[in-house]
Amino acid sequence: MRQFGSVVAPTRSDLDLRDERAIRAFVRKTKPDWIVNPAAYTAVDKAESEPDLAYAINAEAPRAMGESAAELGIPVIHFSTDYVFYGAGTVPWRESDEPEPLGAYGASKLAGERALASSGAAHLIFRTSWVYSSRGKNFLLTILRLAQEREELRIVDDQYGAPTWSRDLARLIVQVMDRVSVRAAAADTSLQQSVRAVQGIYNAADSGVTTWFGFAREFLGLFAEARPDAKLARLVPIPSSQYPTAAKRPANSRLDCSRLREVFGFTMPTWQESLAAVMGEVLRGQAAAFTT
Q: Is the sign of the CA dihedral 166, 16, 7, 136 positive or negative?
């Protein structure tokens, strides 16, 4: 596998994604080989009351990145979401299905896809779902904390999708960049031209399907096996109607990832395999915190 060079990963204080001028200046200054954009405004419910901010980060920022990248011949990798779909039925969504977001967050992410696609940049857009990790703020860690604080947790059990480990997405991106780079070298062409040959939208979520309740039950079951002395809340499955939110969620977030396999030869692991690996990280993190 090709070894890539250094990674420039600006923090919020380094680069304000609400500032298009700052984005363009940053791209011109760093002149990277690739631009990978996993950043997003992800406060799904809050987006209903502050759509301008959601659009600034999720739509206008990708446009600025794309236009700057097009000027310099830099390919762009961008992440989008299952929330671009309205979520009816039980059939996994394909990339060719017509998007119809239910709320401001999904609409802003769809606008970002379209802005990047029309920017002129060579691009790859990966739609994913229910992203989590062993760090930061996400459903998984929130559930673990609440399960140790409360006697009962009521969790939605009629929204279906695939929890996706952030590290699986990182591995995917490394393989995609490697494949594109090898093809460019073999054809004696540029990265930009090599990306254009396969550019477009790809679904990228871990394999399998569950609900938010099923995700929580599996995770807490693994935790209970590792920590049999831990006192955990009782889980109660509920319908979405019993957990009202400002933004409506899609009931069907299943994603068909067959195009990813066909074009890049990459198969996402099952969500259960990845969850078991994340549990190991969580336990090691707790052990380290206990000993320091």
A: negative
Q: Which of 71, 161, 70, 160 is nearest to 122 (CA)?
A: 70
Quote the CA–CA distance of 103 and 84 in Å, as a whole number.
9
Q: pLDDT at position 288, please?
A: 53
Task: Determine contact, residues 76/123, Cβ cutoff 8 Å.
Answer: yes
Confidence grade of residue 135 (pLDDT, cut at 50, 70, 90): confident
Residue 105 appears among annotated catalytic residues? yes
Rounded to whole angstroms, the Cα distance separating 164 from 92 reads 15
pLDDT tens readout for residues 77-122? 999 999 999 999 999 999 999 999 999 999 999 999 999 999 999 9
List pLDDT tens digits, range 232-246: 999 999 999 999 999
State how beta strands 210-211 and 160-161 pair.
Answer: antiparallel
Counting Cβ atoms within 10 Å, is residue 198 exposed (0-12), middle (13-18) or buried (19+)? middle
Q: 36 — phi, psi (to 5°)?
A: -115, 120
- Interatomic CA distance for residues 287 and 13, integer angstroms: 31
Q: Which of 86, 105, 132, 202 is catalytic?
A: 105
Contact 46, 92 (CB under 8 A): no
- Distance in angstroms (rounded) separating the CA atoms of residues 100 and 102: 7
Q: Identify the structural domains of the chain with CATH numbers, from first to last.
A: 20-287 (3.40.50.720)
* Residue 284 confidence (pLDDT): 79
Q: Could you tell me where the beta strands, DSSP code E, fall in the chain? A: 35-37, 76-81, 123-128, 131-132, 152-156, 160-161, 164-165, 200-203, 210-211, 234-238
